[in-house]
Amino acid sequence: MQQTLVPGSSGGGFLGLRKVRNRALALAHSPQNWLAWLFLIVFGYLILVPVGNMIWSTFHVQSGDSRRAGAAVGEFTMFYWERVFASGQLSARLLYEPLVNTLVVSLTYTVLAMVIGMGLAWLMVKTDMPFKKFTGFCAIVPYIIPSWTLALAWLTIFGNSRVGIGAAGFVESLIGRPTPNWLAYGPIPIICVLAVNYFAFAYLLGSAALATVDASLEESALVHGASNRRVIRKITLPIVLPAIGSAFILTFASGIGTFGVPAFLGLPVRYNVLATSLYQSAGVGRYGEAFVFTLVLVAISGSAILVNSWLLGSRKQFTTMEGKGSRQRQIALGRWRVPVGTAVAVLMAGFTFLPISFLVLQTFQYHLGQFSLDNFTLAYWIGERDGLRGILVSPRIRAAAVNTVVLGLSVGVSTAFIGILVGYSVSRNRGRPLSRIVEQVSFLPYVIPGIAFGAIFLSMFAQPRGPIPVLYGTIWIIFIACLVNRLPFASRMGISAMMQVGRSLEESAEVHGASFPRRIQRIMFPLTKRGFMGGFILAFVSTVKDINLVILLVTPRTMVLAALTFGYIELGRRQFADAIGVVIIIIVLGCTLIAQWITRTNPLQGFGGGNQ
Q1: Which CATH number fits domain 31-71+386-612: 3.90.640.10, 3.40.50.2300, 1.10.150.170, 1.10.3720.10?
Q2: What pTM does this model have?
Q3: pLDDT band at residue 609, thresholds of 50, 70 and 90?
């Protein structure tokens, strides 16, 4: 007798199993699906789990703190939060003074960077100023080179013999008396250096915003009798105001966790910001305290990014470019054209070449602060000074250089490749919740300042985690931290590149039996190689020059060049630190120019962020 299947019978279970099986097969044959799930699991473990682990650590007694906390290791405690936030004078010294210093420095350098960057953007986009190509190149270079090398250059120029290591700068040697202490160290130098480093960020964002303003709107107002000043105030400024606000917040968030500049220009006079307080706490083993500082930095940076997202949303209310072509209206500067262009070009060249020139000059000084020919030496390059060999003949520095280049290349290739795959999974799943989640999680590291990110990974991998052994003390922890930290920009480039690749080519190859790896190799990669190269160069350069992320993760065995400079500064060996800085600048600029030559594009335009 034929059996009739009814709902609730065993046949229903069979149909349910078939449905699950079919879904599993569909998932297996849809690489965009299993890639998205794979990325979600891996990113969750490498981003969300470390953050959660760090938060957990601030509420549990850490090793070495049981006596101070009055509880056994691992027990629940509010000790770290009370110590940082509610311990009177101790809290003022640990948190509130560095917090105020951080906000004052960050807000002030951001205002200066915005004034310089937005002013330059307006001159470059909206006027007929000459020398734009040279000026634009010079404007970007200070952002590409490490910010801490600009700090070293500042000390070479404005350092005095009464503060810090007691070395006179060029200005003191020139005028014959020490420069003011406030000009050598403290908030003023930090603000000036960070403003020079980050104004290019504001310039890039401002230029992009101004380029979207259709000239027909401005010309219409001029025809009806409005002056140039009124056109700027009533038309141009309202259109780009959300972008200006976004540039302000991103410039603020990008530098709030920077470590190198405040360390070189602030610590010698005990001027602390949150990043240096975090480093000092971690340096003496007070990790619970350091993790609280980390969360404060993340909260400030994350709040700034959320405000920026709101501003970007408000930008949709202006639609100035339709399907028709648009052009830029350039204001004629008249007789001021050449003087203004010359002045701006000289200023930008000064920001670029003056610091580098003085940095190079100091590497040839046997004694700091003596700017004379009889003080010239090659000891710091190919000789020896006080038992320390020159950087070109030192095995220690050679090992750090190898670590740096290998790390940069590995992170660059890996991050760029992952960025392309993230772009593939997100673009092919566009509109689905899974796609949005992967995209948001991949961007999360941007919210976390570099030194805070290093602290998070230190809390995660300083002890075994299931099958994963202790990674601290190996190059792997630095590699993984750098890879995850560079992920936001690589994934954005990958998504942008993949969104421009139609599905028809891939579907045609799939119909003819091409496997997914072969489709990636023969179709996707050739069509997105510029996005890959952009992701690679960003990740490589950021890794080579970064001191914020690696300063808590390096050991003598895994030392890299950027962290090595800080060690030489602590020893008072500025010439060695300067020489290493020059080498890093050569590597960074050389790699950027080679990438520009290979791709026939301008990768400098991609430097729109990062917690250097």
Answers
A1: 1.10.3720.10
A2: 0.84
A3: very low
